[in-house]
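Exercise: predict the fold of this chain.
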Amino acid sequence: MKKATLLSLFTAAFFSSGCTPIYTKHEAKLIVYKTAKLSYADAGFIHSNSEDDLKIEILIVGQPAFTLELGRKICLDGACLKKSKWIRENLSPHYPQELLQNVFLGKPIFGGERMIKKSQGFEQKLYKKDAFDISYRVTAKAIRFKDKITKILIKTKEIKQ
């Protein structure tokens, strides 16, 4: 009986570990994440890998207070939903499903629409009546995404070490 229990524990551990992304890049940042449902602002980490899987952790007194995982699904503190459903329910039904990944990685949003290149990054201003009024700026040291209509603010800033 012990062998069967040990084997089933090993099998469960093996298969569940395959679903957890391995992060290869870890950056300390000051992070602001404000939406209608959530509001966090403090130091944290952005963990990423080459597949654009992300894990955003905001720490309060050194402990994770907010963990957002972006991959095939979006998971907030362990509760996961399909990307499209999570974006629709927590941000805006008018946003593309890759928006959060692109913002946290400093990539263009909405396919690079209305992008103006700057010396240290780029800027995008996007407007759709009654849907969004977005100002998005990426520089070498900071990212700022603000939507005046949905009142969403996402900012990251490099922490000097």
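Check your answer against the key: The two ends are 53 Å apart (CA to CA).
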